[in-house]
Write a structure and sequence with these properties.
Blueprint: E1 2-6, E2 13-17, H1 25-32, E3 38-44, H2 48-61, E4 65-71, H3 80-92, E5 100-105, H4 107-119, E6 125-130, H5 133-139, E7 144-149, E8 152-159, E9 164-167, H6 177-194, H7 196-203, H8 208-213, H9 215-232, H10 247-256, H11 264-282, H12 289-299, H13 310-319, E10 327-335, E11 338-345, H14 346-353
Parallel strand pairs: 2-9, 3-4, 3-5, 5-6, 6-9
Antiparallel strand pairs: 1-2, 7-8, 10-11
The structure holds glycine (GLY).
């Protein structure tokens, strides 16, 4: 078992990484939630047939009463209507302030269930059991929970740290290749922004089987980087922005594809290559960096460039929440393994991208 502790004032919690952990979820939830009687488990239509009963059995065996709530799989479920449905279902299940919510699924389930936990009864405890690579290395750690609005993604949300994060790498075996690759975009990002040695480690493992052979180390390394960044900047006012490497331009690609053509990971992959190329043009990033990143992403089956018009870039830059006024903070690489914020005029950025 690999263990990390995210140390935040009054809200410290453990991340546990171990094969077969799902079947022991009850034991670890009992330790983290000694007062809870009921656990309200939220999952989706993809995950429920695979892992809900195994998880619920373990929770029941540990003495919890278990409520189950299954949402349709997919981003459209991260909406106000599903949130309201969750609130009502939680009250119908007689959830109390000493009980807790369990998010069993990917980023959509974690964000929606986490936001419901943050708001129901003015906040109850919650546990993240992420079942995709993307949610294991990113969204389940750090306490950002949200739903999407018509105006954009993740616009209504909270910082609400989980009490516990349980990661069972075995659940990744049932992911389609494309979904695994999607998560790998964020894994590569950690190497780019904070750990050149980890980038080299990944470069030697271009295939899923080789990555899975070392998956505990990979999950640990990514979560440890995120832990350090979140401990220094929980509220995303400084260093946490580094986690957005590739995301500003990725946002443009997601917009360009109307959130249908490209997944988040695919958009971030192309965004990282473009941001590295831009860094090279600005004289910040060593020549050849974009090519190295592109080589790794292509081997993983991820796109390294996505068509995007100036208007689509402009829309993304204008809306990007990191932007303030005429300037934007882009994340660029001083070298592979070291990212820095780079303030620039939005107009100058759009000119560079044209
Ligand atoms: N996914 C970026 C963050 O958690 O800050």
């Amino acid at each position: 078992m690999k263990t990390l502790t995210v140390s935040l004032p009054g809200r410290s919690y453990q991340i546990l990484i171990s094969r077969g952990l799902l079947a022991k979820a009850g034991e670890y939830c009992r330790k983290a939630l000694p007062r809870a009687g009921r656990l309200f488990v939220v999952t989706d239509t993809n995950v429920a047939p695979l892992y809900l009963e195994r998880t619920a059995d373990s929770l029941t065996a540990a003495g919890f009463q278990v409520s189950r709530h299954i949402i349709p799989a997919g981003e459209p479920s991260k909406c106000a209507a599903q949130l309201a449905g969750l609130w009502e279902a939680m009250m119908a299940a007689r959830l109390t302030r000493t009980d807790a919510v369990v998010a069993l699924g990917g980023g959509v389930v974690g964000d929606l269930a986490g936001f419901a936990a943050a708001t129901i009864l003015r906040g109850v405890d919650f546990v993240q059991i992420p079942t995709t690579l993307l949610s294991q290395v990113d969204s389940s750690v750090g306490g950002k929970v949200a739903i999407d609005l018509e105006a954009g993604k993740n616009l209504a949300g909270a910082f609400w740290q989980p009490r516990l994060v349980l990661m069972d790498p075995e659940v990744l075996d049932t992911l389609p290749d494309a979904t695994f690759a999607d998560g790998m975009a964020e894994v590569v990002k950690y190497g780019c922004i904070k750990d050149g040695t980890f980038f080299d480690f990944l470069a030697q493992r271009p295939e899923r089987a080789a990555l899975m052979a070392d998956i505990e180390h990979i999950l640990y390394t990514c979560c440890n980087i995120k832990r350090i960044v979140v401990e220094r900047d929980e509220r995303d006012t400084g260093e946490r922005m580094l986690l957005n490497f590739g995301h500003t331009l990725g946002h443009a690609y997601e917009l360009a594809g109307h959130y249908q053509t490209w997944t988040h990971g695919q958009a971030v992959a192309a965004g990282m290559v473009r941001a590295a190329g831009l860094g090279e043009r600005l004289g910040v990033t060593p020549a050849g960096t974009a090519e190295r990143i592109a080589g790794m992403l292509a081997a993983l089956g991820l796109p390294t460039a996505i068509p995007c018009t100036g208007a689509e870039y402009a829309a993304a830059v204008g809306l990007d929440k990191k932007g303030a006024g005429d300037q934007i903070t882009l994340i660029v690489l001083e070298e592979l393994g070291h990212a820095v914020p780079w303030r620039m005029e939005k107009a100058a950025l759009l000119e560079e991208l044209a």
